[in-house]
């Protein structure tokens, strides 16, 4: 049976989730479908177009909430939270969506929704922050899964901490205990929320009309 465009996009997402963006090639997507790579070009002209369709699929459920009365409830903060969660649900999802948006591929439906709420510049600022934070989060999670994160409170790490700080006496023991820091993974969601609040507060302040100073008598 001949594959549809939806089949090709679904296969691309499976390859992405299994092997990451770096290894998500047209050849591997074709192999996932059991066809020759040339068969994919009946549906998409190139890999970039396929990635754009994959990005659209990743963010498919992201959009304004609809109230009981049928009206769209505009909440830019909720949109950004939903967008980040959708990207984090797929391996390298943030890279795919950010790349598609940067090259103006796909429909940019989320950006259009944000622009209606906070203007074009506000939407771009929120998107760039959301993309960057999601990409950083995915990198951290992948590093943690590979055991590549270093605990700076580990005595073995402290022993390689280098020379003592300026002003410390010669012969100071550089293997002294290092104060542990909180696990960054525990604060990633909270830091994203704080960043959104800062940006939205700035946008709200910029939208308020400037007060005219009263003359001093």
Helices and strands, with pairings:
Blueprint: H1 5-19, H2 26-33, H3 37-40, H4 47-58, E1 65-66, E2 72-73, H5 76-88, H6 93-102, H7 109-145, H8 155-158, H9 184-207
Antiparallel strand pairs: 1-2
Helix pairs in contact: 1-2, 1-4, 4-6, 5-6, 5-7, 5-9, 6-7, 7-9
Overview features:
TetR family transcriptional regulator; Tetracycline Repressor, domain 2; DNA-binding; Homeodomain-like_sf; Tet_transcr_reg_TetR-rel_C_sf; 2 domains; HTH_TetR; Arc Repressor Mutant, subunit A; mainly alpha; 217 residues; 2% strand
> What's the number of domains?
2
- Name the shape in a single word: elongated
Radius of gyration: 24 Å
Q: Give the amount of beta strand, in percent.
A: under 5%
CATH architecture of the largest domain: Orthogonal Bundle
Helix content: 55-70%
Terminal Cα span: 86 Å
CATH 4th-level superfamily of the largest domain: Tetracycline Repressor, domain 2
Mean pLDDT: 81
Main beta sheet strand tally, sense and closure: 2 strands, antiparallel
CATH class wording of the largest domain: Mainly Alpha
For the biggest β-sheet, the strand order reads 1-2
Along the chain, the helix and strand elements come as HHHHEEHHHHH
SS elements, strand count: 2
Low-confidence runs = 152-159, 176-181
Structural class determined from secondary elements: mainly alpha
Number of DSSP helical runs: 9
Kindly report the CATH topology of the largest domain: Tetracycline Repressor, domain 2
Protein name: TetR family transcriptional regulator
Keywords: DNA-binding
GO molecular function, one term: DNA binding
Domain HTH tetR-type: 2-62
